Amino acid sequence: MLEVIGAGMGRTGTYTLKAALERLGCGPCHHMSSLDGDLDRIRGWEAAARGEPVAWDELLDGYQATVDWPSCYFWQELMDAYQEARVILTVRDAGRWYESVRDTIYRSSHRQPGLAGMLMRLEDGVCQGLRHRRRMCERVIWEGTFGARFDDPDYAMRVFEWHTAHVLAAVPADRLLVYEVRQGWGPLCDFLGVPVPGESFPHLNDTAAFRRMAARRRRRVLTLRSPESGSHTAIR
After folding, report:
1. Is residue 125 part of a domain?
2. I want to staple 140 with a disulfide (CB 3.0 to 4.6 A). Which of 64, 70, 88, 204 is the partner?
3. Which of 72, 57, 85 is nearest to 15 (CA)?
4. What is the per-residue pLDDT for 142?
5. How far apart are CA 128 and CA 92, in angstroms?
6. How far from each other are the two terminal CA atoms of the chain, in whole angstroms?
7. What gap in Å lies between CA 166 and CA 163, rounded to an integer?
8. Is there a domain that residue 113 lies in?
């Protein structure tokens, strides 16, 4: 049963929030990274993006919390479906948020021109799960959230700010925490009614870490496609 709904867009500290929630006992927490190789769940999110009926208990089976895309796109539906769940809106300066998204998930999940696009096609040919996840990201994020206009910074930042205002207006104050991950344990623990852990607050998946992860994945794909590997088998 879902207990916490993350309404903040990706690159507002959602991976850090995932780790923090799981440390506080609100886990497992669903995040885009949870979809690696999970084709059935990816297809479920694609169906939701097409407007098909969603059995949320099935799609989120096993999870107690959600953060990041694709779930933040459906925060209103989730809030209606889980009326006892609390909502956490992670926020960030719009300009820094845009730069972070542009330099990480946009470049890794939206088809790029030139050499970058060629490498993405190579990855998609080897990794079935990655190919399906990118297609889902296109539907939910780049088309569904930003109307295929993320390349326009002013427009994308207006969407981001509208999203924040919409959540603030729609969620009852007693169900909502507006949160910056740099605030650490205090506000989060107060909101959830749990004690502060005796350990440092996690700070994960900054832009540099994201790029290192993407580079490792690309090296792995290129190795698998090399003639010496002798295998072009799709990886789930």
Report:
1. yes
2. 70
3. 72
4. 96
5. 33
6. 27
7. 5
8. yes
Rounded Cα–Cα distance for residues 178 and 163 (Å): 13
Tokens of 37: 């190789």
CB contact at 8 A, 125 and 47: no
CATH number at residue 130: 3.40.50.300
pLDDT at residue 229, as a whole number = 40
Q: Print the domain residue range for 18.
A: 4-225
Q: Which two tokens stand for residue 232?
A: 């072009």
The mean pLDDT values, 10 residues at a time, for the chain of 236 residues are: 97 97 98 90 94 96 98 98 98 97 86 60 60 87 96 98 98 98 98 97 71 55 46 32
pLDDT for res 102: 95
Judge whether 96 and 203 are in contact, CB under 8 Å: no
Q: How far apart are CA 101 and CA 145, in angstroms?
A: 13
- Does residue 234 fall inside a structural domain? no
Task: Evaluate whether residue 74 is within a structural domain.
Answer: yes
Inter-residue contact 129 to 235 (CB < 8 Å): yes
When divided into structural domains, the chain yields a total of 1
Residue identified by tokens 């072009």 is 232
Buried-state track 15-28, b at ≥16 Cβ within 10 A, e below 16: bbbbbbbbebebbe
- pLDDT value of position 217: 52
* DSSP symbols for 61-104: TT-SEE-STTGGGGHHHHHHH-TT-EEEEE---HHHHHHHHHHT
Per-residue model confidence (pLDDT) at position 202? 94
